[in-house]
Amino acid sequence: MINLTLIFIAAAITHNFVLTYFLGICPFIGVSKRIEQAVGMGLATTFVMTLAACVTWVIYHFILIRFGLPFLQYVSFIIVIASLVQIVEMFIRKTSPALYRALGIYLPLITTNCAILGLVLFMVLREYTFLEGVVFGVGAGCGFTLALVIMAGIREELECCDIPKPLQGAGITLIIAGILALSFMGFGGLISR
Amino acid sequence: MRKTIQMISVLTIVGLVSGAVLVFTYKYANPLILDNQKSEMEEAIFKIFPKADTYDKDIIEDNVVFRVKEKSGKLLGYAFLAQGNGYQGVIKMMAGIEPDLETLVGIEILESQETPGLGQEITEEEFKAQFKGLTTSPEITYVKNKSPERPNEIQAVTGATVSSSAVVSILNEKIKAIKEKLKEQ
Amino acid sequence: MDSLKCASCGKELCKGLWRENPIFFQVLGMCPTLAVTTKALFGFSMGMATTFVLISSSLVISCIRKLIPPQVRIATFTVIIATFVTCADYFLKANFYTISKELGPYVPLIVVNCIILGRQEAFVSKHGVAKSLLDALGMGIGFSAVLVLLGSIRELFGFGTIFYYKILGEGFENWVIMALPAGAFITLGFLVGLFNWINIRLRQRRNSA
After folding, report:
1. How many domains does chain A have?
2. Are residues A125 and B19, on separate chains, in Cβ contact within 8 Å?
3. Which of residues 32-91 of B touch A (CB under 8 A)?
4. How far is Cα B87 from Cα C201, in angstroms, rounded to an integer?
């Protein structure tokens, strides 16, 4: 149990996917202008991350390892993620139109979100068990949502600021991300092994 | 209908071709990768035991132990692989211990993904050299921001206590296991 | 006619270097850019690996683009890209073992580098083989150049070296922050700002002339 809590906290805060591993920077810069948008994107990503962790764990251990096919790792992982996103999209559209309206437009963007593939690769690299993998997925998703929402909050405030023209857009976003990364380092002592 | 067949056939062909390409790449690269891993391990063993000439690999219940010998055939000590979680990822290292199993000869870090500039300092000579001649009983411990006083202490890298303590505890755990297994024999 | 053709070819090649630079202008492919540039050498290796994948997948896709039904376009592209990425990964592991260990999971992450899929979608699927290759080459070089630049700056201040050559003297205290994630974000932020500033100045000069 302690182990699982540690994995969760590490993935969500001390080793935040966006701010220490640089995963999912594209949506972090692209979809962080409004808080509602950020929440939607974050929830959709968390959902897909958790599912992807489950499915790829099973595929990796029961197919790739059993039949000695490690070289098909990347191809099969990316196919799984892409089809998962598609299935989730179709499923949500059928069952809950309201949820689809809220999350729908973000789903296609998730396929090329490096955070998902990164999550799966880290999970395999660190040899997590199934349960650890799932907790890792949820934690990473929460961390992603947290970073995205904080960023969106700051950017909403920034709109009233007088930013030097060359830094508008990506420039100032990256610099803020740097400062956020610094402040997240303060959580570093939270886990001492 | 024709469209469906076209879609399926294109995807199948692309899949098959990609699979074939990957099989060839794997067949070409895998022996080279295994070679690299082996020579990396050998290098580490010879760096820890400069006088070493040959070594025998021995696997005792999950523990990989190398019996390192001098040219004359005299046992120089045991080298073993130890790995565990550091601050950001897995730390993998080779360590050498004298035949009496009480004194460390040295360590080499084989793999680590610690923070560059902080935790990654554990791969620097300055940190690794501290393990030379350390006594292993009682267990190795670390001190912060001051010079070590006892023969089983090392000084943690400033700003990277977690990485340093990870190295120490991974080592301690493995030394304990190795001691037990080797004494049983 | 020939000179016109050459000029347009040159344009395809050069636009990736500055005007449509994948990192500065399109702000794509951020995660490898930031993650592996703690040292110039790693940035260079990552740039080369990405360029290789970009060129080879552009070549294959531009050859077979007419055969691919549009509905399964993205899926096919992704499989092709993933295949080349696996090849690059194994090649690095087999021949440049130490570098591949440093790059770690960021080599497989080239699969989801938006630059590659983005180029296939936006350019290769609409153009012929020659133009696609030039475009890929230009984008690849532009991407690698930024990676090396960012890597050099971070290595210089973070470790006092560039490509492992000692540049700053013994008295220099390493700025650890440059090697940390925060340093990556801030340096790249200012570089993007610098790029925009130069572009604004160039435009003003052109307008006044």
Report:
1. 1
2. no
3. 85, 88-90
4. 45
Encoded tokens for B70: 């001098």
Residue C2 is predicted with a pLDDT of 53
Chain B residues with CB-CB distance to A191 below 8 A: 162
Domain ranges in chain B are: 45-184
**Residue positions counted in chain A:** 193
Residue-by-residue pLDDT tens, chain B, 185 positions = 788 888 889 889 999 999 999 999 999 999 999 999 888 888 888 888 888 777 887 777 777 788 888 888 788 888 888 888 877 778 888 888 888 888 888 888 888 888 777 888 888 888 888 888 888 778 888 888 788 888 888 888 887 888 888 888 888 888 888 888 777 76
| Residue B141, helix vs strand vs coil | strand
pLDDT tens per residue, range A4-52: 888 898 888 888 888 888 888 877 887 777 888 888 888 888 989 999 9
The full DSSP string for C27-53 is ---HHHHHHSTTSHHHHHHHHHHHHHH
Domain carrying residue A142: 2-190
* CA nearest to B19 within chain C: C83
| Cβ pair B18:C93 closer than 8 A | no
C116: left (phi over 0), alpha (psi -120 to 50) or beta: alpha
Q: Which helix (H) or strand (E) holds B158?
A: none
Instruction: Establish if C93 belongs to a structural domain.
Output: yes
Contacts of C76 in chain B (CB under 8 A): 10-11, 14
Is residue C7 a part of any domain in this protein?
Answer: no
The token pair that represents A1 in the structure block: 């149990």
Chain C positions contacting chain A at CB under 8 Å are 27-28, 30-31, 34-35, 74-75, 78-79, 82-83, 85-86, 89-90, 104-105, 108-109, 111-114, 117, 177, 180-186, 188-190, 192-197, 200
Residue C181 lies in a domain: yes
pLDDT of residue C5: 66
Domain assignment present for residue C160? The answer is yes
For residue C101, the enclosing domain spans 12-208
Sign for the pseudo-dihedral over CA of A80, A81, A82, A86: positive
pLDDT per position as a tens digit, A77-98: 988 888 888 888 888 888 878 7
